[in-house]
C-alpha cells in the first residue's frame, strides 16, 4: 500500500520533531514539568517515541499501531501544554496566547491521526 503525501507529511513532522529533541534538548528541558523525575531521560524517550512513531507510519504493518501511539502521545503531551500555562517560568518565554492556541492544535493533530483509522 502506498503512503499518501499527507501521511508522509505527518510522518516527517513527527520524525523531525523527535530529532529536534536530540539536536536542541535544552528547549525541551525548559518545558518539562518540574514535578516529573529524570527530565533528560523523558526528553530522550519522547524524542525517540516521535521518531519511531513517525517512521512506523510509513509501513503498512505498523501504521495503525503508530496512529494509536501518536494519539496517546498527544494526550500525554497535553500535560506539558497545561503545565506551561501554570506560570511565567513554566511558559519558557512563549507568549500566553500561543500557549493557549497549542491546546486546540493538539486536538487537531489527534483528529488528523484518528482520520486514518476510520
From TrEMBL:
Keywords: Membrane, Transmembrane, Transmembrane helix. It comes from the Bacteria. The keyword Kinase does not apply. Signal peptide: none annotated. The chain crosses the membrane at residues 6-29, 41-62, 68-85, 97-114. PANTHER family: DOXX FAMILY MEMBRANE PROTEIN (PTHR36974:SF1), MEMBRANE PROTEIN-RELATED (PTHR36974). This is DoxX family protein. It comes from Maribacter aquimaris.
Amino acid at each position: 500500500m502506498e503512503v499518501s503525501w499527507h501521511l508522509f507529511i505527518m510522518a516527517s513532522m513527527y520524525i523531525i520533531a523527535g530529532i529536534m529533541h536530540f539536536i536542541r534538548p535544552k528547549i525541551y528541558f525548559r518545558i518539562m514539568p518540574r514535578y516529573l523525575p529524570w527530565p533528560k531521560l523523558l526528553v530522550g524517550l519522547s524524542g525517540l517515541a516521535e521518531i519511531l512513531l513517525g517512521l512506523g507510519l510509513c509501513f503498512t504493518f505498523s501504521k495503525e499501531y503508530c496512529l494509536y501511539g501518536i494519539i496517546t502521545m498527544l494526550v500525554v503531551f497535553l500535560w506539558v501544554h497545561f503545565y506551561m500555562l501554570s506560570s511565567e517560568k513554566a511558559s519558557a518565554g512563549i507568549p500566553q496566547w500561543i500557549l493557549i492556541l497549542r491546546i486546540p492544535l493538539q486536538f487537531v493533530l489527534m483528529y488528523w491521526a484518528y482520520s486514518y483509522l476510520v
